[in-house]
């Protein structure tokens, strides 16, 4: 049944495939208005993960948004931030009159340094607005750093064509956009040349297969706005299945914030292991309970990395920031659970 629907779906499919990465990135970062500002350098080479490798190294990255860009969007927008008119405050956090000033820049990354070894999973944590998404936007080349560098494999990221870099990255956003099409197609979309067996395999790895079999028409069930509505966590699993099918060497994942989906969410995290042992994963993590098995946890604050290590290493730091965040979330969750108990 699923295969019957493929030829029809194929029309427009190629176009959609090109669009998909952008849809996901827009969904991930609320970049609906932003256009890539990066032009490839002359003689830029095609990024080939097999040849160049897929480790990622952020080195002393500094980045500021133009203040005129700071219309609040999505969950972002201008917050209580410090604004500096010079474009680089050297981390001193001087305040300048930003509103209306064309030259004003708002420093977000103030010398961020850490690396993601090839095939490892690194989680970035930090308070809202500390620059986690900004870091991934730079990696996806929506912006260039003001100073410092990003190394991808054996070269600086700017040595490659932007297109080839993006092609190597699969994005699992928090709010996945599904097409009004069958769920089978929505998965297969990760690789239109995939066989039926590949699709089922990817959906098993994303823990989606059993759920799909329970749907009224199985893999032929139409989902999306005009079809069956899936929960946020389920949609994210569709996105993960796509990423598995695509076999991207690099996976960027924005973990859901919704506490309602916490069970599904922890499944997503454990499923990342299924993505492939050679896949380099970078995750923006919101719920610390789910990232304990990550190879490295990077804690950001004020645009810099303040701690890094495994969960156990960070938990053993007396007075550490990670410990503080974990304690805060635990007490917060306990409150939530108590509230739930009280209403039951
Ligand atoms: P969250 O956990 O809430 O998603 P985050 O750590 O991912 O936050 P970023 O999205 O990187 O934070 O944003 C860092 C800061 O930069 C925020 O204060 C945000 O308002 C601001 N910001 C984000 N996008 C832009 C933009 N296009 N122009 C100007 N400022 C922006």
From TrEMBL:
Coiled coil: none annotated. This is Uncharacterized protein. Residues 76-99 are annotated as: Disordered. It is found in: Cell membrane; Mitochondrion membrane. It comes from Cyclostephanos tholiformis. Residues 93-327 form the ABC transporter domain. The chain holds residues 572 to 915 of 915 of the full protein.
